[in-house]
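Notebook entry, structure prediction.
Reason for the run: the old model in the group folder had no record of what sequence produced it. Starting over properly, with the input documented here first.
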Amino acid sequence: MNKSIRAKVASKYLACALLIAGASACDKKGFSYDNIVADDGTEYLITDSVTLNMSTVYLDSIPTSALGVALCGTNNDPVFGKISATSYWQVKAFSGTTIPDLAVYDSMVLMLHPARGVYGDTLLKQHVEVYRVTEEIKKPSTNTYLYSNYSFATESTPLGSREMITRPYWDTVYKVRLSDALGKEFFTLSKNKSQTITDQTRFLEYFRGLALKPGANSQIITPYPVGDSLNLRMYYHTDGSQINQTYADFAVYNPASSTSVQFNHIDFTRPPGSPLTNLSATNKSLPSTSSGNKVFVQPLTHLIARIDMPYLRTFTQYHDYTKIMRATLTVRPERLTYVYPYTLPANLALCEINSANVITDTLTSSLTGAVQYGNLVTDLVYNVNTAYTYDITNYCIAEINSSDATSRGLALVPPRSTGLTHFTRAILGDVQHPTNRVEVKIYYLRYK
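New structure, fully documented this time:
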């Protein structure tokens, strides 16, 4: 039956407008039909006029630990506002080779390896400062993660700082020179094999950790992979000169990815007059009609997009038998909002979200069964054909059969591995947007 149906659809190029204009479930107005009827009385129809409500949703808490990326810097985004990132972490105890008795301390530096995905113009200055943390970095007993609004006390004076132009395509490492007083202290303890620096528990009591904060002149936010960044390196030499200099490393303390307490703290201030200023922990939804016919996605500043089709549950009430064969969703970023230095998320996962704006599940394809990430196509010439596309067949069928308790909306959310490690962002048009409109198409059968 399905193959026959598809053949008929393909041969007839069938089109029909089904307007779902706001009727309640018991009021069967708001639909218009342009029927094409097969010999057996079956109608093959398509509608692209389903009522869509879009909104920007504010998420309460953003987990930023156990991601393997440290974020640091400040960027003034004209749409999302002034955003700053600070990274906190614990340091691994000394476990290197024995330091010779005649060794002499030289210096201590923090090694930073910049990654691609800088937030802002890389021609602008990066200014970082390194601080000693003075309280234990730990998760609350009931939490699995540390969140972006958490912070821990530090000393008031930085151990070291550096200003530079970040060139992630060219430079592999930046070294931030740290306090010699701290370096010599580490050196003496390491040389004497003191348990204060060799035993992890004692070391964390002595040295709580480090924070990498943006300095006053920072203009961009840079990601640093934790695997090879945030490494304290203590240089020393042994022969009366520095020709044969060697070093000992103090890496990030990361006993297991699930227990890592390295995390990123995020601050943001929305631009004056922006509709985003209306969003907060107490006002969690902003309709697209109140924000220029668009919605905003940037999880690190608590924003995701929501789509609702409020009258979908009435879809089958207008004939004895109606069957959805396929349904697609296409969302389009607003033109000129993803030109350098700002970039779109490479992946936007399609999820189900309940009435309390809690994401309940990811939505899989009816054809492959795989989680959907939008298959982004980017139009950098005209900026009008850039789009994410999704198969929402299973979602539409489920919604038609849902109750008030089981009904769900759709959410567009970058995956945790990328959406919470970089400041990519998306500005998506709604159905009334002048150039980049969201679109739903539903292909269905109706038996007379």
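Summary: The longest strand covers residues 321-331.
The old model has been moved to the deprecated folder.
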